[in-house]
Amino acid sequence: MVASLDGTLAALAEPTRRGVIDLLRVRPRPAGELASVLHMSAPAMSRHLRLLRLKGLVEEEHAEREDARLRVYRLRREPFVQLRSWATEVESFWSKQLESFKEHAETTRKGKRP
Amino acid sequence: MNTDCVTVTTVLAVDPATAFAIFTNEIAAWWRPKVDGLFQRGRNGTLKFDNGRLLEIYSQGEPFEIGRVLAWDPAKRLVFEWRQEGFSPGERTEVEVRFEAASAGTRVTVQHRGWDALAADHAARHGYTGNAFISMIGLRWGDALTALRLLPLAKPEHGSAAI
Question: How much is the pTM?
């Protein structure tokens, strides 16, 4: 599945789904664990996971045994690499300005530390 | 939940009042005109807060008014409009700079917001959609950005190693 940038952004424009992403970046997890950590019902979590799957942000990973309870979700790499390419550019503008601000402040105000 | 801002933070080793004064009074000294990113302007000038406005001043010609100052609360908070060349009259984004005492000095947080509305206007007027438009305007969905900053980015072995 090819993730589109718009689809990635749409999928991330929701706090629960960002929570899922944050949890999955630590390690793959089963749906039930995601639901319980984020205080969601299983059906509600299932809808979020379905959307994340459709948009290509996560994928199911089947454990070795044929046991549905052992299915876990994990992040796909591709959409985040794609997002990163413009997100980095966007943030870097203000990051560089602030970096320059900090450097100027600290070099011209030595000894004025609180 | 706000979805149209980008937020960047730094901590510097001066007190908040000093940080605010340097940010405003000395912006010409620290602002980097040639930073790539959102604002690739045709000319390189110096910035100045002047009489309730933020201006970019050039060696020749009229200054460019980036925007009005909307809040000026020394040692605490600064809000100003941010317009770029190419914006229509009435189109603007907004920058808020917060100064908070932190153990190492001052935490400075820049939030640049208002891109969603702007994006919709630009898209409507210029007929941009989707990725091409995002590339042009450079920014949308600031919360997504915030989430992204936390992402692992992502070692290829990340998933498989954890089975």
Answer: 0.56
